Records
---
Amino acid sequence: MPEVESREAKVNRLKELLDGKKYLLVLDDVWNKESALWNEFIGSLRGTSQAMRSWILVTTRDQQVVDIMKISSHQEYSLKELLDHQCWLILKENAFGTRQVPNRLQDIGFKIAQKCRGLPLAASVLGGMLCDKGIDE
């Protein structure tokens, strides 16, 4: 059975990979609310590539995670939900690509986009699912 690498070993490996390089580290859809772990992680990266102006971007839908992250940085950007027509554009692109959307599917597609409630990932996933179903035939 392969040996499981410890958290400390993973962080050290990441630090080795990033040291001396300019980087953008994206931590997407974070839900962990243990501030001690985040402080330890961010602290371990301090001093790595400081002169290179590197960034760590964290995305979350949990306000408590945002509050914990503010300990390390005071920059916060709250994104708004997309409008229904923007979700429709994403859904349509994923479902049809460059092909023309059949007229009979325009209204149905827009109603599906409204169900996405402004979430681009939902529109993208649903569009991909519809693409796989061959709905334009």
---
Amino acid sequence: MTLQWTAVALFLYAEIAVNLILCIPFISAKRWRLVFSWRIWSWLSPYWNKCFFTMIMVLIVLFLDAVREVHKYSGPEPMHDAQVNPNVYDHVHMKLFRAQRNLYISGFSLFLWLIMRRIVTLLNQVAVTLENSAELQAQTDSAVKAAKQHQDDNMMLKQALLDEEKSMSTKNQQLKLEVEKLASQVKAAEETVRKSHAEVEAMRRQAKGLAQEYDRLLTEHHQLQNPQSAADKKDQ
């Protein structure tokens, strides 16, 4: 195996190990987000995209080269030469085996490189989603608590209004009873005043009648006195 394919194979083994570590179930996305927030990653982040696309280009070139090698040694001409010369048969199949091995190595390296990038992105997204959901849950709990508090306040206010309404109703009934009592007292007083006026009027008429009777009797008295005086004068 040449140096470049040895490096690609080591890169493939490293990708397999990293993907397996990233897929460990008991390491949560929040912990991976903490790992990804280390200062070294922020220092490497400006070069990450360049490195990512560079590795894609290198792996694509190696993959295409492996495809070319497989197509080269699996064609009819090398097979014909291998059948003609038995010594060449082993050499051709060895070259074909290496080309196919290199094809698998470069193909899986490219595939796992893309998968690893996607796994890291999904872990970050899941961590952000969990943080947002936690914040939303806290906001929801706060809103529910505030709504419950407002509901309790409304119930207390409603109860206070009902109590006040009952108190006002009781006061209104008392005032109504007092008004009715005062009205009955006023009516009785009016009746008393009316009776008093009637009695005064009767006494006034009686006094007037007595005065008239007194005047009549006084007149009769004078008339009786006047004839007697005239008789005395005649006797003298």
